[in-house]
Amino acid sequence: xxxxxxxxxxxxxxxxxxxxxxxxxxxxxxxxxxxxxxxxxxxxxxxxxxxxxxxxxxxxxxxxxxxxxxxxxxxxxxxxxxxxxxxxxxxxxxxxxxxxxxxxxxxxxxxxxxxxxxxxxxxxxxxxxxxxxxxxxxxxxxxxxxxxxxxxxxxxxxxxxxxxxxxxxxxxxxxxxxxxxxxxxxxxxxxxxxxxxxxxxxxxxxxxxxxxxxxxxxxxxxxxxxxxxxxxxxxxxxxxxxxxxxxxxxxxxxxxxxxxxxxxxxxxxxxxxxxxxxxxxxxxxxxxxxxxxxxxxxxxxxxxxxxxxxxxxxxxxxxxxxxxxxxxxxxxxxxxxxxxxxxxxxxxxxxxxxxxxxxxxxxxxxxxxxxxxxxxxxxxxxxxxxxxxxxxxxxxxxxxxxxxxxxxxxxxxxxxxxxxxxxxxxxxxxxxxxxxxxxxxxxxxxxxxxxxxxxxxxxxxxxxxxxxxxxxxxxxxxxxxxxxxxxxxxxxxxxxxxxxxxxxxxxxxxxxxxxxxxxxxxxxxxxxxxxxxxxxxxxxxxxxxxxxxxxxxxxxxxxxxxxxxxxxxxxxxxxxxxxxxxxxxxxxxxxxxxxxxxxxxxxxxxxxxxxxxxxxxxxxxxxxxxxxxxxxxxxxxxxxxxxxxxxxxxxxxxxxxxxxxxxxxxxxxxxxxxxxxxxxxxxxxxxxxx
Length: 690
Hints:
Blueprint: E1 5-18, H1 34-48, E2 61-75, E3 80-95, E4 104-105, E5 111-127, E6 132-149, E7 158-162, E8 168-171, E9 180-197, E10 200-217, E11 224-227, H2 230-234, E12 241-247, E13 261-279, E14 282-295, H3 303-314, E15 333-344, E16 349-359, E17 378-384, H4 389-392, H5 406-409, E18 420-423, E19 431-444, E20 447-460, E21 462-466, E22 474-475, E23 484-485, E24 506-511, E25 518-528, E26 533-546, H6 555-560, E27 574-575, E28 581-594, E29 599-610, E30 614-615, E31 635-636, H7 639-644, H8 657-669, H9 672-676, E32 680-681, E33 687-688
Parallel strand pairs: 4-8, 7-11, 18-24
Antiparallel strand pairs: 1-2, 2-3, 3-5, 5-6, 6-9, 7-8, 9-10, 10-13, 11-12, 12-17, 13-14, 14-15, 15-16, 16-19, 19-20, 20-25, 21-24, 22-23, 25-26, 26-27, 26-28, 28-29, 30-33, 31-32
């Protein structure tokens, strides 16, 4: 249809390889001879029928992606325009962990992440009378993620071997990639009606969304071994801990199993917005939005969890009304907001800003854990010196490529319920208060100066708690470090025998109480736009403090990944992993025209300088004994306290106690943060890389 029907199609192909070279000379573990690493590779191959754990000096990641986009625009009439679009994205990302000075990672410890997305949309824009219009948008998205092991799909046990106080070896299939398949479908409809009445441009709208998920995810289905030394592994000794998980119902086909989380969610929204043009220089904006969520699927309910486990947990924790088999009530969130734009034409100044409340959403795999981590769909167990100790002392486990069943190690399925996820009976979706103010000053000839401030304060924060562990009742026995310490028998006794079938944790998701996260951002920009000369220079400072980073996909990872003083059940506000701090950016370009403006050359120069990444000072091991290694923040001793501390020598640490004290003291004194906070606990993310 001439001048009415238009189409567009594009195709893209991406092939990237990311080298990650590693110099073994920088490794700080006890192993210094590459021959020992070859011996490790040979030992694994001999015990596994020839499995090659891969290299470690240049673990290459890769991306292969193919994308197709098609769009049709149809001008049906002067009042109606229809746009249809389709997008296809199919790619595979090989995530291979790099070796570092403290960790030798073999390249088959990574995972492959094939992902295919189909998405389509239909948009109809219509003029309805002289002063009104309507926009109708319908979208559909289908995403399939099939995360799996590197190396032809062969799942291998995950193995971690401690190598002295500053190193470790990691090989085998990444523990979250042996049973991991996610399929999501989203259907969304939005209708917006806009009406102009005098100085008011009023827009009202409605949104409906139906979300359908199938998530088959069980960690450690090939087994997970932890050893305290290379010698222990070479001698085929018992590991220091062993974990295995498995589906309890359905088969082991991750794409078709009843052990998967299958659930549907509906989201609805109503919104209204009014842009008021007070005069030619001032525009005001008022808006209000209401969001509603409802879980449409009822999860399985384990009678043992309800009748036996929950009363035990409730003796120590406030469960916020959480009950297995029940979905949370999600209250309607109302979000008012206000904005303005003031143009002071005589001064060549624009002042703009606003404030309001904005409701968001969380990845649905977070609450979706109640559909598969329920004690009925999947199970698992851990054996170590502190969990299932009596069975562990029977010395039954040695390294092998197939996982040990509960029956093989003497655990009944009734005591191998794995992980349990709970969610509070009332749960609010994330909501924040945001405010901003900005000043734009036009200087003439295309030059402009902008100053902008933004502030965000969390209203609804998410909080994770492991309610399966006894509260800490002990303190550090000696020295100035007086933090809480958990008892050696960590899990709450549930059965009459004292057994606890939830070896992998019971995680309660709820809204945070008390302190909430916040962020602010300041930007100063000088900009020049022109036909042949462009210039931009800006300074930005950002600070973000969080209660929980919430950057993982599982409850146990969300809980365990936070660095704390008194354990993961006692997190406080700390600087975020994503806190930007200072950044200076500059850009300048000059275009040169020649041959009567038929040819041109543009020369550009850019500069970027920014603060380094944040990091924390933590102990190697556990200080509070809540079951999590490497995430307990250190105590920074004064010089007098340090001299009173006891240092030991071992075959791996040959320096004398006094030499160790002197080295530790020098390290503290040479660190700007540590030297100023002696006699205190280190804060999370207190330091930055260069």
